[in-house]
Design goal:
Strand content: 5-15%
Shape: globular
Length: about 500
């Protein structure tokens, strides 16, 4: 066999990996591999956990017998589900850690197969493909077979969705920082993405005649504009309104993602006219008054499906449904909140105060108005006064301050949406969602959400992301591939004003 530097480098890295693994295990033996363990005793004890896992997690069949291996009894899945459901939060951490560490990938076997693949590079293609297939199979965690079998048990898919929600909470809280938990999360996400692919989802329109349990869940899951009572709910599924949800056969009666739509004459510029419009309760729809569809709320109901693409497909399916019902309809837009704007602005004010750059954010006349309205001295005192006003929403009580701050807050908000980035994409999660779908950042709306929540989160500003159907594919590709944001003249004009005033 001809010597290749790549072979030597790979073998050296494998040797180093093994050495590091042994050393890390020795150093962290008392730390349980980076996981935070608690003094509370585990019901059934660690031994009980080990016995359960040894019994229900079947060994991974050999490569040669993978298609002939008999499936484990369903009782294994049910026993796992019952045992896990009996644990408290702290015990679940220990259980999932043990599952992911002790029943994951056979790293030693994978390393050996990887070396075999390198050694086979000069052999025939069939041999290489066979080793690659063995390597793919070897990268399968042992617990994946159990997860697959749980999905076939009654209530199994819902159980796994909730299990992933627990895993995500462990990761976000940093209760366990071992990479095994992250690998378990990746395996679960991959399986759920397959099981919840758009072809397996059912689009349902929710009406006042829908089952009471569904209506109750729709009310419970509404995360953007909370539903106050049954009358409010009846209005949101009544005339000039549409409510759609994706459901899955394995989770009957459980909406996965919910989209609320308002049918209007023009593109709405405030949420009050949509969620507080009492007149829509008893009227029959007049088709001549329906020219636009406003997506004013989209809520994912299952924490365990985070990262599984559902919302973007739901919007596309709903657009087709509405076009079928209203062939003349040509305007599709969101009316979206801007979570995070106020907290971002408060941080920016604190930063500019520290750097002595407050004059860059507002014009000289705007700062004078703030100083007079708050009885504060120029400079740092005025910046701090403005920061407190934003934090407490007190500025909304002053007509003078509202008038003065409107142009400043609008251009600051435009920059937050258009210019603030995370890895090159929009920092704001709602903006990122709609831009990925191919929407255009079309219009910022002042006093669009005057509820306490709306003022606290985004100074009452909302934004329309407009879906020009003949441009969505192009916009989506430009954003995802080149990080280019499609935006209207209004938005770009506000961004330009911010750049000039802040000297960016």
């Amino acid at each position: 066999m001809i010597f290749h530097p790549a072979n030597w480098a790979f073998r050296s890295s494998v040797w180093c990996w093994r050495s590091r693994a042994v050393l890390k295990a020795a150093l962290k033996a008392s730390d349980v591999n980076g996981c935070r363990w608690y003094s509370t005793p585990i019901r059934g004890g660690v031994t009980g956990m080990e016995e359960i896992l040894a019994r229900v997690v079947a060994p991974l069949p050999t490569y040669e017998t993978r298609d002939k291996y008999p499936p484990p009894p369903e009782s294994n899945s049910l026993e796992f589900m019952h045992f896990y459901g009996s644990l408290d939060k702290e015990d679940k951490l220990g259980f999932l850690t043990k599952l992911s560490q002790d029943f994951g990938v056979d790293h030693k076997g994978v390393s050996e197969l990887a070396l075999r693949l390198l050694d086979a590079q000069l052999r025939d293609l069939m041999t290489i493909l066979q080793i690659e297939d063995r390597l793919r199979y070897g990268l399968t965690p042992h617990y994946k077979q159990l997860l697959n079998h749980i999905s076939r048990a009654e209530g199994g898919v819902k159980f796994l969705v909730d299990l992933r929600a627990d895993v995500l909470e462990i990761i976000s809280s940093k209760a366990c920082e071992t990479p095994h938990i992250r690998d378990l999360n990746g395996t679960l996400k991959s399986l759920l993405s397959e099981w919840f692919s758009v072809g397996l989802l059912r689009l349902e329109r929710i009406t006042w005649q829908s089952p009471c349990e569904i209506l109750q869940r729709i009310s419970q899951y509404e995360a953007v504009h909370p539903i106050r009572n049954w009358t409010d709910l009846k209005r949101r599924v009544g005339p000039y309104r549409r409510c759609y949800a994706f459901t899955h056969a394995a989770m009957p009666g459980e909406p996965l993602v919910v989209l609320h739509v308002a049918l209007t004459e023009d593109i709405s510029d405030n949420i009050q006219s949509i969620v507080r419009e009492l007149a829509t309760l008893d009227y029959e729809e007049d088709v001549n008054k329906i020219n636009a569809a406003i997506f004013y709320s989209i809520s994912s109901t299952q924490a365990g499906l985070q990262g599984v693409e559902l919302g973007n497909y739901l919007i596309k399916r709903v657009v087709r449904e509405l076009q079928s019902e209203f062939p003349h309809m040509a305007q599709f837009s969101s009316l979206s909140p801007i979570p995070g704007f106020s907290s971002w602005l408060q941080g920016l004010l604190s930063q500019y105060k520290k750097e002595g750059r407050g004059s860059d954010l507002l014009s000289e006349q705007e700062w004078k108005e703030v100083e007079q309205a708050t009885a504060s001295a120029p400079g740092s005192a005025a910046i701090e006064a403005l920061r407190k006003l934003i934090a407490t929403s007190e500025w909304m009580r002053s007509e003078r301050l509202t008038r003065v701050l409107e142009p400043a807050l609008m251009r600051l908000c435009a920059w937050y949406l258009y210019g603030e980035k995370r890895r090159g994409y929009a920092l704001n999660p709602v903006a990122n969602f709609h831009l990925q779908n191919g929407a255009s950042m079309w219009r910022l709306n002042w006093n669009a959400d005057t509820s306490p929540r709306g003022v606290a989160n985004s100074c009452g500003i909302m934004v329309n992301y407009r879906y020009f159907l003949n441009e969505t594919s192009k916009n989506s590709a430009l954003y995802l591939q080149n990080k280019v944001i499609a935006a209207s003249e209004q938005v770009l004009g506000l961004v330009s004003q911010f750049q000039k005033s802040s000297k960016l």
